[in-house]
Amino acid sequence: MRAAVLHEIGQDKLEVLDDVEAVGFGPGKVRIRVRATGLCHSDLSAMSGVLPQPAPFVPGHEGAGEILEVGEGVTRVKPGDRVVVCWLPACGVCPACRRGQTELCLAGFMNAGTPNFRRPGGDLFGFAGTGTFTEEVVVDAGCAVPIPDDVPFDIAALIGCGVTTGLGAALNTADVEAGSSVAVIGCGGVGVSAIQGARLKGAAEIVAVDPVAARREAALRFGATEAVSPEELADAKQRVTGGEGFDYVFEVVGRSTTARTAYETTRRGGTLVVVGAGAMDDFLQLNMFELFFDEKRILPSMYGGGDVLRSYERTVALWRAGRIDLAGLITHRVPLAEINEALDQMRTGAALRTCIEI
Q1: How buried is residue 279: exposed, middle or buried, by Cβ count under 10 Å (0-12/13-18/19+)?
Q2: Percentage of the chain with pLDDT > 90?
Q3: Which residues are within 8 A (CB) of 303 and not within 5 positions of it... i.e. 6 or more apart?
Q4: pLDDT single digits (tens) 255-273
Q5: How many other CB atoms sit within 10 Å of the CB of residue 317?
């Protein structure tokens, strides 16, 4: 079968090969025919080494498709079922799951260290234990979440990561208060989803911040009240908040420099939500006096900061009701053979989300 492969960390191109085999099928596993997958910035971060990932590997973790085969003991899904791939399934029994913090379950991360593909040259890993830039993938049954028949595969793929992460940051982690002021730094697919979440919660002012003009224009369509470049943020802070700072600031880039800007843009007593996934050697510096004196809440948001399955269901309900726009997030479509074009679209900021059709 075909799959897009990164041979070594640091390479900026993927090679589409047709001699890849999905392996590991057995009890508790399912085989999925991938129909659509989104390109998330986390895939680029894994390729560059910002996020730890064994290589060689098949990127992709934001996918949807249909069940081809189920292993012994699998009862939740059956062949023919439409599913979204969940890269962070909850085991249900660990301390985090028992506390109701299923997004902090580490069981899914354990899968990342086990190869789930093979080719004549040796084993391949799947990014985040999945690897959806391929025609088929074998994953734990908990990674295959059934979706209703009326949800298209491309929409379902977005729900698998970017939309759940962005919406959840606003709805779960921040719990944005109606009438509040919000700034979102970084307006790709996740940032725009955070904007939609803030709009749903009734934020009065939503300022989108991004260096790419096309993304700023898109942010306005999704609910931002204004959109500015990073150089214009200080002026927006002065105009919108009288210089005090925003009630909520979402950092959706994953860099210490933008997180520091976000902290300084948050009002005293306000909330900074860190959504972007950054590098382990990129440190955010805060002095102890400002940390105490400003009383700003710093809230990291992992995968939307809530129960993933409930978040999926909520997103589908909001989409059906016309309260959120998911189709509009897909600005580009490419076949798997042109995956490197999708990478370029992400790197230049030309795309909010590119759907890879498989």
Answers
A1: middle
A2: 95
A3: 88, 103, 161, 164, 165, 168
A4: 999 999 999 999 999 999 9
A5: 11
